[in-house]
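Severity: low
Component: inverse-folding endpoint
Summary: output formatting inconsistent between runs
Steps to reproduce: submit the following structure tokens with default settings.
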């Protein structure tokens, strides 16, 4: 078989139940036709972005479920679903590596075909950054305020590894993985277009560094600082050595 025959096979369109259920006909038509790619890397570029959008859609949908389970204080469901979110975030981060198999020159050719498109316009990303704060409000109302708890009490003065603590740690993990995407994405940019360049929106790409400092739940990070300072006291600043080295 020649290349064109394989291209035809890649479209599917056999009408079998698997294809009908998955709507694979439409799915496999969502990339540019093979003869319109500017180079051999463009299919990968489109697919990685499309897959990332699908994972973000599933993540946003799952987070809405989590939000509803928080109202019910159904901690078992919440932790299971946060496990799913964590895997989705891991995959999203890992998959960026695919784009590092693209040469800088081939990316420059693709970039010319992007119009004014930017990751900032990603529908999945936009919904997720709105959902982060929503989850915090629900957590605070139902797991903290309703029971007279605070972040300080569940982490330190009344620490018992309670449900509120468990859910708080799930939120911290979600926040950390979101930040990790930012770091990983920065590495990808360094590899493909470099940090010194102007972005498609005319901003220096190192402005993205503000994005990676984004924290959905600053209170969950600040409690670590407070505890270290409180527990350490003076001892935390200047310590005696544990060992007694020979003079
Ligand atoms: C070679 C590949 C990539 C390059 C060179 C690149 C480059 C950039 C640049 C320069 C920005 C800054 C915004 C701007 O002014 O345009 C940006 C933002 C962004 N990109 Fe990418 N990107 C790549 C791949 C991806 C992929 C695969 C995703 C997957 C979701 C993604 C998601 C985002 C998001 C969400 C933002 C907004 C970040 C924020 O506002 O904090 N990018 N990207």
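Observed output (run 2 of 3):
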């Amino acid at each position: 078989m020649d290349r064109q025959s394989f291209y035809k096979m890649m479209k599917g369109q056999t009408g079998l139940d698997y294809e009908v259920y998955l709507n694979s006909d439409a799915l496999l038509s969502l990339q540019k036709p093979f003869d319109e790619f500017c180079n051999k890397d463009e299919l990968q570029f489109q697919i990685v972005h499309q897959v990332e959008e699908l994972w973000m859609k599933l993540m946003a949908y799952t987070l809405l479920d989590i939000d509803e389970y928080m109202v019910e204080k159904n901690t078992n469901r919440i932790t299971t679903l946060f496990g799913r979110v964590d895997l989705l975030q891991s995959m999203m981060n890992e998959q960026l590596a695919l784009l590092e198999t693209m040469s800088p020159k081939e990316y420059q050719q693709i970039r010319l075909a992007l119009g004014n498109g930017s990751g900032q316009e990603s529908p999945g990303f936009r919904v997720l950054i709105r959902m982060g704060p929503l989850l915090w409000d629900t957590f605070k109302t139902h797991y903290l305020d309703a029971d007279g708890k605070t972040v300080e009490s569940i982490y330190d003065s009344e620490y018992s590894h309670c449900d509120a603590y468990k859910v708080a740690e799930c939120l911290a993990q979600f926040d950390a993985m979101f930040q990790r995407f930012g770091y990983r994405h920065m590495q990808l940019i360094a590899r493909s277009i470099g940090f010194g360049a102007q972005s498609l929106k005319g901003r220096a790409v190192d402005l993205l560094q503000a994005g990676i400092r984004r924290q959905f739940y600053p209170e969950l990070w600040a409690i670590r600082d407070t505890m270290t300072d409180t527990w350490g006291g003076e001892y935390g600043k200047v310590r005696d050595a544990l060992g007694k080295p020979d003079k």
